Amino acid sequence: MILGNRKRRKIAENKSSRGNKYFKDSFEVEDLSELKESEEETVISVQNVTMKFRVATQNVSGIKEYFIQLLKRNITYREFNALDDVSFDVYKGEVVGIIGTNGSGKSTILKIVSGVLRPTDGTVKVDRKKVQLLTLGTGFDMELTGRENVYLNGAIIGYSREFLDAHYDEIVAFAELEDFMDEKVKNYSSGMVSRLGFAIATAGDAAEILILDEVLSVGDEFFRKKSLARVKEMIHGGSTVLLVSHSMPTIKENCSKVVWIEKGKLRMIGKPELVCKAYQQMRETPQTTSTKASEVS
Amino acid sequence: MEYGLKQYIFVIRELTSREIKRKYSRSVLGILWSVLQPLLFMFVMTAVFSGFTLNDISYPVYYLTGYTTWSMFSIATTTAMTAYEDNKLLFQKTKLPREVFVLSRDYTSLVNLGFSSIALLLVLIFFKVQIKWTVVVFFIDVIFELIFTIGISFLLATIYVFYKDIKFIWQNIIVMLVHMIAIFYPIERYPDSVREFTAHNPLFIYPDIARKSIINGTCEVDQLMAMFMWAIGALLIGLIIFKLAENSIIKKI
Known about the structure:
The complex is a heterodimer. Chain A is α/β, with parallel strands linked by helices. Chain A is 37% helix and 22% strand. Chain A has nine helices and nine strands. Chain A has a six-stranded mixed beta sheet, with helices on both faces. The radius of gyration of chain A is 21 Å and the shape is globular. Chain B is mainly α. Chain B contains eleven helices and no strands. The two termini of chain B are 23 Å apart.
């Protein structure tokens, strides 16, 4: 069975190498076909990943200013570690939740895994052709109508025109926006925008590796249930899922493993109950965080 | 998700149609402005400069041919410059090949040229200009001008990410250029000192080939060579610089 899988992957890779001409990954993607044959196949392997951003202490935004500051010897940079030596493995079929307070590097790790960012140090082994990053409404244009946005957003996500033509009604029905598709999106409520975004993003067949960035807290209660069911369907379809969410119940309910990243450092990996408990405890102790107790749910 | 060539073109077309819809979303006449604007300019310019043309060519035809080809370059480069900055979100959150943002702005400008050409066609018919086979050269000329424009666009877009001043510098260069490339009156009227320089300016060459092929029905091999060289050279330089800076652009944005 494993052999069959590898064969299929080989074919997929051959196919994609042609397409790759037009989408040059700016960094090397390590091939997963070399992988050791084990019961639990590693799908994503993050090894000692460090991401440094150089932040200029003075914000110089022009040539003139740059030279002035340079003459004054004022150009200094502050290194900022968004991620500091983070390692973890994700096995096939796992649903891994990533938690952490705001600005602790969750989105950065997602971007690195999906290939948008390149890490300063360390390696990420993942077959990027299989990765699908779901974010809501990226590329929505408020001046365009709902219909036009379905095509624009769909194109950006990677659907073909034929696919969008065939699934258009389905998308609209799922978003429950039948009467609003010729309306400009700027007249939508924020819930409607996210519903449409969710419907487009999940219209296709689930990729083998799904990365969900805060997509489960969308719309009203009813839509949330519906979207959760859709995501669960995708998970049961055999996808490996990496998901970021601020909602602890979502994490506890859906994940088989939780990774907790705090201020760029890996704090804990393990069973959802354990990690979530530790995370909540940290938030409740006043000396480590300034979060008010009332904000903790 | 991966992007094959077909998908790549589909994305560019979708982005382009967004640009056009956005640009005219609040106006009544919409895309018709792309036809009207060059015509309106033509009336003004004819009133002011018509005495400057050489006798055998009617000024509106001279002006409009040069102006439409020139404005493809000027519009494309000024809009493409901010392409990465304007699409920040897409840049950060999707795996789209980064080139599409610049290319879609350039393509938008080409579509715009298509509409302006309607105005040009009307004027050509009105003045009963005899069109010869050399009109084919005009289309080739536009293709190479587009390639040249793409190269310059990549260059400007890359610089813009790091130094926003380029926007203002470029605005001035555009104004200077438009007066240096014989759009308003023929190169024969230029002082000798400027003429030599202008003749070798690629931005004079592209409109000039267009004028010669449409109005005079002639084309010069030397100019066609220059057209080709400038386009390929600019494209290579633009792409190389963009590729070298790509990672820094992603980080900076």
